[in-house]
Amino acid sequence: MDTERPEEESSTQAGAENKEGEGASEEQQQSGKASAEGEKDGGFRNFVDGTARIAVGVGSTLGEAFKGIAGCCSGRNHVVMVRVDDDSLKRIDQLVDAGIFRSRSESSAWLIGRGIGAEARVFSLLESKVEEINRLRDELRSMLGLEEQEPEPEQEQEQEA
Length: 161
Hints:
By secondary structure, the chain is mostly helical. It has two domains: 9-68; 75-147, no CATH class. 74% of the residues lie in helices and 0% in strands. It has helices at 4-22, 26-65, 86-97, 104-118, 120-144, 153-160. The relative contact order is 0.04.
């Protein structure tokens, strides 16, 4: 019987608490509901806030990584049409989607510039070889008496059109 009494006491205490809750003002009850809803929404709000902090952090990190890109797209006066594979297009679009560049054109121009910069040594060697090839070509023409001829005026107009 002693084991039943504690249960009776605890149910009596719970009943008293319920009666106290019934006596609570409507404002207190609303406050309690808002608090419970706030706890549910709190997890979602924390998730949203955390996600926003991560996005801002990623943006800052990308901004630091791409600091020198502002001037990369100035002075672009030439159009180059190029076909790219799926992976290259994905990478170009990622730079646009991240807000680094406003267009695929800007993104591609930056990537081309970076590629040329990364291969500066190759282009330096290439430049000297092309100069040598041009010098040898001119030398051969001169030996054969095939001096470079000026295009006729009509041909110039057709080439410009």
